[in-house]
Design goal:
The complex is a heterodimer of chains A (about 120) and B (about 400). By secondary structure, chain A is of the alpha+beta class. Chain A is built from 6 helices and 4 strands. The two termini of chain B are about 40 Å apart. Classes of the chains: A alpha+beta (about 120), B alpha/beta (about 400).
């Protein structure tokens, strides 16, 4: 039987809040894990170094998708410089479930993508 | 026939449902004992020492080569011990295209493989084709997952010199009719060399090199219930004799001077350095545990896996949200599938928590998954130790997961 927190992750992955295109995006970042097939693209609208809006487009497992979506909620108002200070353990902890060593790269793909942002 | 009771890991982990034998197999007591015996009472350098312990070790290693040869209907001189099938395929890619071989390939000559190959039978060919200005083409697979022979024929050119195919896809679980390639080449007047990757077939169907009618075959011990770190490359003796060495150093030489070196006869020519002696001994013990009276894979083992795979396929097909990938041949015991709404990784994670081990990902076949437009797949692969209870546990677990998600 799955725990409530685990069901919440699957629900979040199926109904993400911030997945989709962003016409006003002027920054883009991509991350892939080809060994497992997970792919993620960030699109950010940034003004004077501050993130106004963020969207992700994720094709991957529930952990990858939910993690990116939870991360996306925290980006508005952050500066690009502050993205570098995001702690991977915090990203994993926000999922609210235990993540095995083998799944950590799924949970952190979103963070990896933020580390590869370029002006679009 | 060897059974689950012969595998100590299932005593250590009674709840384990191991369905990832295509990745690596569990090891029977006989293999563990053989390696233990080697270390406790027989370990010595082979082919070098002039004392009884070394001579006995050399004889044991030679006997192991003989067991491998018998397993596929070959002679010992045609068996090269390699580290794995991956190393065997790298050896072949490098040596078959080496400008120093007899009748070397020329720039513009053609190599044909399939889109469905494991990376071990794809990447080495890509690398040598680029380095040596050769043309590399890929044959499509059909809906079943089998390489389409019509497409293979259409892809042949007068300059086709090498064809390298998997005998059984590690994703589709489908056998390719590799024995039909030679007649096809003969009909077309093309004398290409045929390489076959037997990693996923050797533990499932008895192999006979004269029937397969190919020139080279590779397999890995750890997929045949033996230790990892050792595998075999079989090559027709006249072909092997035309090839230059792959790795060089000790053992593979005849005479070494400061001016140059001459090389040993095959198979020693391809076995540089101290080999994985204990691995070869364990490998032979594994083959002895799974062979029949004729020295080849026991038909009882094939029947056992085929029966379980048939059962598994029937049960999976009854579950609405499950879609099999291709049409697996039950003898392979290998079934890949998709679950609607659940990523393979998540599925494997959830099953893993119940000690049910399946594989999820791209199975070292990225081009295949790209051609299918799939991010990955879930894969079940059976071994001799699997039981009806394993199937029941998996199916019930799948149904429960699908109820909840």
């Amino acid at each position: 039987m799955l725990k409530q927190e685990e069901l919440a992750i699957f629900d979040r992955a199926r109904h993400p809040h911030l997945m989709g295109p962003l016409e006003s995006a002027n920054y883009k970042g991509e991350a892939t894990n080809l060994s497992c097939g997970d792919e993620l693209i960030w699109r950010l609208q940034v003004e004077e170094g501050v993130i106004k809006e963020a969207r992700h487009q994720t094709r991957g497992c529930a952990i990858c998708t939910a993690s990116a979506d939870l991360l996306a909620e925290k980006l508005a108002g952050k500066t690009l410089a502050e993205l570098k200070e995001i702690d991977p353990d915090t990203v994993i902890a926000q999922l609210g479930i235990e993540i095995s060593e083998g799944r950590k790269h799924c949970a952190l793909l979103g963070l990896e993508g933020l580390g590869k942002l370029k002006e679009a | 026939m060897i059974t689950k009771a012969d595998f100590p890991i299932f005593e250590q982990r009674p709840d384990l449902v191991y369905l990832d034998s295509a990745a690596t197999t569990q090891k029977p007591e006989a293999v563990i004992k053989a390696v233990d015996w080697w270390y406790r009472s027989q370990n010595a350098p082979i082919m070098r020492g002039k004392y009884p312990l070394s001579e006995q070790a050399t004889a044991a290693y030679a006997a192991a080569r003989g067991v491998v040869a018998s397993f596929i209907g070959a002679i010992p001189e045609e068996i090269v011990f390699v580290r794995s099938a991956t190393e065997g395929l790298n050896l072949l890619a490098n040596c078959l295209t080496n400008p120093g071989r007899e009748e070397p390939l020329l720039p513009g000559d053609h190599i044909l493989i399939s889109e469905a190959e494991h990376h071990a039978n794809l990447v080495p060919w890509q690398i040598v084709a680029k380095e040596r200005n050769l043309v590399l083409d890929y044959v499509r697979f059909g809906k079943t997952g089998e390489v389409e022979l019509g497409e293979l024929e259409a892809a042949l050119t007068p300059r086709t010199r090498i064809i390298s195919l998997t005998h059984c896809s590690n994703v589709f679980g489908r056998f390719n009719q590799v024995e039909t390639v030679r007649p096809l080449l003969t009909r077309r007047g093309i004398s290409a060399e045929i390489v076959v990757d037997a990693c996923q077939s050797a533990a499932h169907l008895p192999l006979e090199v004269s029937t397969l009618n190919v020139d080279y075959l590779v397999g890995s011990s750890h997929k045949l219930y033996g230790p990892s770190g050792v595998g075999f490359l079989w090559g027709r003796l006249p072909h092997l004799q035309t090839l230059p060495p792959y790795q060089s150093g000790g053992e593979m030489i005849d005479q070494v001077t400061l001016e140059g070196t001459t090389f040993a006869k095959v198979p020693a020519r391809f076995e540089a350095g101290t080999p994985n002696m204990e691995g070869a001994i364990g490998f032979a013990a594994a083959l002895e545990a799974i062979r029949g009276d004729d020295g080849k894979l026991s038909p009882a083992l094939t029947q056992h896996i085929t029966r379980l795979a048939d059962l598994m396929i029937s049960e999976l097909k009854l579950i609405d949200r499950i879609q099999l990938i291709g049409e697996p041949g039950p003898e392979s015991g290998l079934i890949s599938f998709q679950v609607e709404g659940i990523h393979p990784h998540d599925l494997a994670d959830l099953l893993g928590r119940q000690q049910i081990c399946i594989r999820a990902g791209q199975h070292c076949a990225q081009p295949l998954h790209s051609a299918l437009n799939l991010p990955g797949s879930a894969r079940i692969s059976l071994g001799v130790y699997n039981t009806d209870e394993d199937i029941t546990r998996l199916i019930e677990a799948l149904k429960q997961i699908l109820k909840e998600i």
